[in-house]
# Entry
Amino acid sequence: MHLFIVEGSHLEAELRRKFGPQHTYDFCPGTSFDLLTRLGAADVAFDLRPWPELHYERPRQPLFYDTTRHSLAQLFHHEEAPLGPVFGLCAVPTLLDRRLLEVSLYNAADAPALATVCAGLGTEYRVVAERVGLVTPRIVSMIINEACYTLQEGTASVQDIDLGMKLGTNYPHGPFEWANAIGVARVYDILEALYQDTHEERYKACPLLKHMALRGESFALAV
# Structure
């Protein structure tokens, strides 16, 4: 299959690992003058911009949209329905290249199309609720946020918290290592989107995390 990816440079290596060398890839800037021409050559398209908008071009190919900060319902509110099937996607660094592709459906009738395109991509998948943050980004962001509160209170160091989480829970990364890999600003953006969607206190970003995100900083990890 020929995969067309808009603004996906931050996930290029992970996308290539996930779907493999049997496919061809076109990573396109959102401002590219020939975006429409390149979209027309695709079998499937991924729009990874903060506010995806490929549906305005009325393509018939399946579209995968990054829905970690906006649900499909939000994106299509007061919009004309897309011509082809559109799916939500967990497009967060470190969370994409897993055995199961985490996706959501805008229309339940598009379930057969999702099965077909995932078979073509050569991946297993799991359909989750069509909500902001999906499932895994929501959980990981909350873990990182709670770790930030612990660090802010001076209870433990970055290194101690990371080591404790990896040894105690068998997670692949400690929360601060995970935050750096995802991007501190991206974690903050996910939490902000979740809080605006639910107004639940558990999604309210820790002041330390917010401060670091706004300053473009990362956590100092053990060497």
Notes: Residues 136-152 form the longest helix (17 residues). The mean pLDDT is 95.
